[in-house]
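Reply to dn_fold:

You asked what the input looked like. This is it:
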Amino acid sequence: MRLFFSLLFSIFFAYPCFSGVVELEPITISKFTLGRYPLDADILLAEDIKKLPLFSLEKIADYSSGVDIRQRAPGGVQQDVFLRGANFEDTRLAIEGISISDPQTGHFTMEVPLTRADLKEVEVYKNSRLINIKLAAPKTKGAVFASSFGEHALFEQLLSVNFSLKSIKNRLSFEHKSSKGDRQDTDFEIYNFSFHSLWENQAGEIQFLLGSTKRDFGANSFYSSHFSQEEEHISQRFFSGRFSFRGEGFELDNAIFFRRHWDKFILDRHNPEFYTNYHTTYLYGFETGIEFDNKAFVDIKTRKEKITSTNLGNHSRTGAGLYLGLKDKRAGGFIFDLEAGFDYYREWGCLESLHLGLGYSLSDNLKFQFIFDRLCRKPSFTELYYISPANKGDASLKSQKTNNFEAGFDYYGENVKLAFGVFLNKQAETIDWVKDGPTDPWQAKNIEDLKILGFD
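and this is what came back:
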């Protein structure tokens, strides 16, 4: 049984807390009309995040129904997120609306360069296959320290400090966790670091975020059941800057971002010369958007993705997108939101996107909703270019196109919130790994159309 203790303090109060077993409070997932897609969000709030075990950022989304998180190792080393039966490659991750999904492989998408102290809300949009992380605003002062230990030499620490420099509020956070692993070649050591700075007044705000994660771990059978002595080393850096201006009747928002991900994969950690790969990916871009008081908005986005790899080679792709619509528009008992747009890539042309959400309040406590999403996914660099004796990518892959439908009810009682929905996912040009025969390698292909019908 895992032994656990924690110590939390602020600059005003300090107290220790020791316990052999910690019984956590219930976690409540709420459905709110917030964000770009207000009718399709499961939201975990800050007060619920505090109830979670220490250092469990990777588990937060798992509290939403329809979400399947498959850990390849404990401690948040690496995990794949499946939404409503879709492939983990289809799951998108964003920080404050900026997409940071890994272009090399979905295995790296959930390696978030943040600590638990940075989180305000986690929004899960199941129909849109999107997880969005909203950041807690830095405060003028305050600090948090937490630590835990357990079997297999598990040791974890978190330190987060809020401070101000004149009118600029800042938060500096550091997190470390390590273990020898519960079986051979499952040891790990993880460092997370973040710095968040915010200046704001009535006319707007300026904020910067710098995040970093470093992970070294034994990857026992992560990628092949024939090799139980795999090892991986990962380093990621993320930076974003945002400038918002509120004028008469509108708000203008501009953001720049940069993400660098490096990994070294060793097939046999006791014989590194046998097979070792190095990969470095870069993701950077600019986004600007304007929202009017009547809830209409226009967004323009551009980004570049690049990879240098000893296995996949050197490749890059550039995309530009235009989106417009209405969000959280209300008329009588109706609420609706609409977004239409596209991302253009030379390799795949226009990748269209459409979102429609319609809700109607049948009473003060009961709401009906219908949601439709049209999604297009371009192949990852691994699906396009990876070559090994066991796996072969395909540089001619087409983009995957999906139509997602959802209909359901939400009930809000005094002490209970219930939600029920039926969903249908229709997918064309599905990208997946298949075998032609038992001795053939896995190959990335556009396979037949798929349909997924379910409820949650």
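The longest helix spans residues 381-385.
Hope that clears it up.
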